[in-house]
From TrEMBL:
It comes from the Bacteria. Residues 128-314 form the O-methyltransferase C-terminal domain. The keyword Lyase does not apply. GO terms for biological process: methylation. Residues 9-75 form the O-methyltransferase dimerisation domain. This is Hydroxyneurosporene-O-methyltransferase. It comes from Streptomyces noursei (Streptomyces albulus). GO terms for molecular function: O-methyltransferase activity; protein dimerization activity. It holds the Pfam family Dimerisation. Keywords: Methyltransferase, S-adenosyl-L-methionine, Transferase.
Length: 332
């Protein structure tokens, strides 16, 4: 019999698409709304095939994503429910869709990367977001994935950031605003500006309207490599620096140092490797997706602090959260 960890990795090629389809066809939504049910009733209500539904539910049961009673009813464990409930801040459906619709299509590149190297396969002038922002639909889908991945952790990170005396937050590459919204909700006197590519602006406007933030949340279009950053007393990089190599990160942090008011701060929010690099699992997996989808990688806290020092920040501190994303603060 295969060791459990090996078995789960081997059959991941089955489990992730099944998870995605359960999200897409609202199987989890049905269980959240209606409670335990047999596969036939779920399939009837959702107008999907009952046998395929049953087989998929059995896979999710074996992976301990859902539970099955002896009577054949399926239900959601309490620890899983918030992550598959579309009304929860911790919902991950958009990110699961991104893994299947975007990331999975690039996994085959690993074979070529191993034989020839990433630069030889992709070209040295790779612009990773050209594909992700190829049209408004693709842009919206990617931003939805990033919101699902980022908003809940951002609530804790906003608390850890200590924004009580901050007046103007610049959220660099802030997308449709998961960290900016969390920060504004936590600090009523704060203003925030999201600085991102022009394609993002309509989606940020939707976020601003949905959360009733008015002129507290503004958008400034630009390219953080070709333009200087807007000035503020706190410059945030939420899950941005892991998209880029070290030299590009120093370039961005140096721009942040110039844009940051005296005695201001820069915030780096990202997944961190343990110093041993033996995990966490999500960081290791996402480190590989960074290789597939961007030019970046995940780092240890000390590596980020070294980048801050090179960019001119003379004091840095690490604040670990209860999630898989943490905060490093650099002081000007």
């Amino acid at each position: 019999m295969l060791p459990g960890n090996l078995e789960k990795v081997m059959f991941g090629v089955i489990s992730t698409p099944v998870l995605y389809l359960a999200v897409r066809y609202q199987v989890f939504t049905h269980l959240v709304a209606n409670g335990p049910a047999v596969a036939a009733d779920i399939a009837k209500d959702l107008r999907i095939d009952p046998e395929t539904t049953e087989r998929m539910l059995l896979v999710l049961t074996a992976f301990e994503i859902i539970q099955r009673t002896r009577g054949g009813q399926y239900s959601l464990p309490e620890e899983i429910r918030p992550f598959v409930d579309p009304d929860s801040d911790r919902y991950i459906g958009g990110f699961v869709a991104h893994l299947v619709q975007e990331t999975a299509g690039r996994v085959a590149l690993l074979d070529s990367y191993l034989r020839h190297g990433k630069d030889a396969v992709d070209g040295s002038d790779l612009q990773p977001f050209t594909s992700l922002y190829r049209d408004d639909h693709a842009t919206g889908r990617f931003l939805k994935a990033m919101w699902d991945l980022s908003f809940a952790p951002s609530k804790e990170l906003a608390v850890l950031a200590g924004l009580a005396t901050t007046t103007h937050l610049i959220d660099v590459g802030g997308a449709n605003g998961p960290f900016a919204v969390a920060a504004l909700q936590h600090s009523p006197r704060l203003r925030a500006t999201v600085f991102d590519l022009p394609e993002v602006e309509p989606h940020l406007k939707e976020t601003r309207a949905a959360h009733g933030l008015g002129d507290r949340l503004t958008f400034l279009p630009g390219n953080f490599f070709t333009d200087e950053l807007p000035e503020g007393d706190c410059i945030a990089f939420g899950y941005i620096l892991s998209d880029w190599p070290d030299d590009a990160c120093v370039q961005l942090l140096s721009k942040a140092h110039r844009a940051c008011h005296d005695h201001g701060r820069v915030l780096i929010m990202d997944r961190l490797f343990d110093e041993s690099r033996q995990g966490p699992l999500a960081t290791s997996a996402m480190n590989l997706t960074m290789h597939l989808e961007t030019q970046g990688r995940h780092r240890t806290a000390d590596e980020y602090i070294a980048l801050l020092t090179e960019a001119g920040f003379r004091q840095a501190e690490l604040h670990r959260s209860n999630s898989d994303k943490h905060l490093i603060v650099g002081h000007k």
